[in-house]
């Protein structure tokens, strides 16, 4: 199974490499206030990928931080629960009739 996963990864990498090498023509992005950026198309695509990756990481950071805090709290509760002795209650005896 690992071989198939690595084969798929290599095929996707080769496909993306061929796509990148075939899109080297210059593209121009026009921004507000007259700013323009001319760069190879693959570089513009890579820049947008990196910006999207960073935006995703920043948006996921609060949830990760909250989950880490909860994980620490639960570990402390588990440690306290393991340290306290368990009280075994004897069940009540059935009524004698």
Overview of this protein structure:
The protein has 97 residues and is mostly helical. The chain has a domain at 19-83. It has 2 helices and 2 strands, in the order H-E-E-H. The chain has helices at residues 2-22, 41-83; strands spanning 26-30, 36-40. Strands 1-2 form a two-stranded antiparallel ribbon. The longest helix has 43 residues, at 41-83. The termini are far apart. The model has no long low-confidence stretch (mean pLDDT 91).
Q: Which percent range fits the helix content?
A: 55-70%
Kindly state the mean pLDDT as a whole number? 91
In whole angstroms, the N-to-C terminal distance is: 67 Å
Largest sheet: 2 strands, antiparallel
What's the number of extended β-strand segments?
2
Low-pLDDT sequence parts: none
Q: Tally the helices: what do you get?
A: 2
How are the SSEs placed, and which strands pair?
Blueprint: H1 2-22, E1 26-30, E2 36-40, H2 41-83
Antiparallel strand pairs: 1-2
Key structural traits:
two-stranded antiparallel sheet, 2 strands, 97 residues, 2 helices, mainly alpha, single chain
Explain briefly what this protein structure is.
The protein is mainly alpha-helical. It has a domain at 19-83.
